[in-house]
Amino acid sequence: xxxxxxxxxxxxxxxxxxxxxxxxxxxxxxxxxxxxxxxxxxxxxxxxxxxxxxxxxxxxxxxxxxxxxxxxxxxxxxxxxxxxxxxxxxxxxxxxxxxxxxxxxxxxxxxxxxxxxxxxxxxxxxxxxxxxxxxxxxxxxxxxxxxxxxxxxxxxxxxxxxxxxxxxxxxxxxxxxxxxxxxxxxxxxxxxxxxxxxxxxxxxxxxxxxxxxxxxxxxxxxxxxxxxxxxxxxxxxxxxxxxxxxxxxxxxxxxxxxxxxxxxxxxxxxxxxxxxxxxxxxxxxxxxxxxxxxxxxxxx
Amino acid sequence: xxxxxxxxxxxxxxxxxxxxxxxxxxxxxxxxxxxxxxxxxxxxxxxxxxxxxxxxxxxxxxxxxxxxxxxxxxxxxxxxxxxxxxxxxxxxxxxxxxxxxxxxxxxxxxxxxxxxxxxxxxxxxxxxxxxxxxxxxxxxxxxxxxxxxxxxxxxxxxxxxxxxxxxxxxxxxxxxxxxxxxxxxxxxxxxxxxxxxxxxxxxxxxxxxxxxxxxxxxxxxxxxxxxxxxxxxxxxxxxxxxxxxxxxxxxxxxxxxxxxxxxxxxxxxxxxxxxxxxxxxxxxxxxxxxxxxxxxxxxxxxxxxxxxxxxxxxxxxxxxxxxxxxxxxxxxxxxxxxxxxxxxxxxxxxxxxxxxxxxxxxxxxxxxxxxxxxxx
Lengths: 300, 376
What we know:
Largest sheet of chain A: 2 strands, antiparallel
CATH superfamily of the largest domain in chain B: Response regulator
Order of helices and strands of chain A: HHHHEHHHHEHHH
Number of domains of chain B: 2
Structural class of chain A: mainly alpha
Shape of chain B: elongated
CATH topology of the largest domain in chain B: Rossmann fold
Distance between the termini of chain B: 84 Å
Number of strands of chain B: 15
Number of domains of chain A: 1
CATH architecture of the largest domain in chain B: 3-Layer(aba) Sandwich
Oligomer: heterodimer
CATH topology of chain A: ABC transporter involved in vitamin B12 uptake, BtuC
Largest interface: A-B, 43 and 36 residues
Distance between the termini of chain A: 54 Å
Radius of gyration of chain B: 23 Å
Largest sheet of chain B: 7 strands, mixed
Low-confidence stretches of chain A: none
Structural class of chain B: alpha/beta
């Protein structure tokens, strides 16, 4: 039973790591129907920004709490700037092009950003400072679940609730939903669609940056390629949960994380990806729009 | 008319071909071309770049003395990023440029995919770091040599140390599913089972680059392993070790020369303390090694990186063989490599008929106060 709980906890951690990244994927898809393949790279840039800021601040001897806050805010702003710019350069000119064009453009941006960081920083792995301390009250259960696991879990929950609130009850949220439903109609009733799309990218990128900080601190190392695998897994989770749906992204991520964890624990880690992707195939066969996704109605 | 035109076209084509081939053939006569292939960019560049430096140092020194057999030596450097699919391209490119021998490749997977191309072209390959046993033991590649001991010797050193020195009984063998890591892990498993002194309680591969290894770490705990033998490279090793320490496990961690890299200590930080890793024998007392390192400091103003000494040895061995054979012809050079002993940073070596260097081996190192220190 202990073993089951341990595996359950590692599955939850893994799932909430995926969820922090998957939320950005699903938001962008929900609004403009684009799979933003550069999102993993925005996450990686967030991790690098917080790495640089945290390293500089710790040289000047700032307290840990201040470092976390400043590094988080700096990473969120910097990544948002990247997300905003990527959208303006690579996706906006292609908004009326066939669906495949912005998708290819997104893959291009992903490769560009990866190689830019490779050249500007280093190809080596860098040690990421431990920004989440080991809490004393966690010590008795540290062998089952760590402090950083708890922080990641809580952050994911808070972010999911905040996003749901934002989309359901605020003005910008209403505008987002309107844009998602019918872009032309939203324009006609006076919604600035460009601004709504920019806002979506900014929010999604800021989330990815926070994820970058937390996850890098949990793993303890970063390099230019971390965005790729994390991005692929988060994308899988978003599709699993129903791409475009905020709770769906979290649900999909948790299911994916738990599946991988239990597959590793009870069968073999050689097969964790096999189980994760078999699950995806199964769910898509029986529910093509994902667990919580809305089935697309054909317009006649 | 039609026929005539076709013949004249053919003649032109032949003429063009001749013109383009001739200069290459002409050049090949004046210089000895040595290829250097390996990872020179990407996340494994730190394994490949020291070999380039080593080859440059050896060749510059030879050229300053007037070259080999009266010919200057020229280096052709090709980046394969340690990827098998890129390595075949690098190999084809080097062969088409008319290389006489190649120092490299760095990673076993890349070497394996490039070897058939060199074999078909009759080019000798001498690697400072490709440790996959099959490369020599299969007997498929008479053109392959290496100045590093193969993985089974490394696995043997790890298992002997774990069973006989540390006295552990239950061992978890973990690998990264790659050619290098999995090969090594399978040898370790075989040696443990054969010895009868210990049990393999877990044998599994992890996915490189995964965001979190806590599930496999829990599984190691569940298996009640006293020690982990890991086959793979430092990024995964540091994640697994850090996660084990985070979960308050003090399980002994033994690994290979993919982990015996300063980047591992830098990234794993305090969690690296106490980790064992095998690496090539310490040659710091060998005067040839001291001279090579001094030359590197003088030329590049820094300490050499991974596989520098074996790369320097590979360069010395192949140049010595070409000189002794007084030819770049494959049969003569192969014979010289097998019969002529050469003084190198890894010791006085020659090669056995399979291509392994005689007199090269592994030693066990442990991280103490942020540095790898030789134990035993």
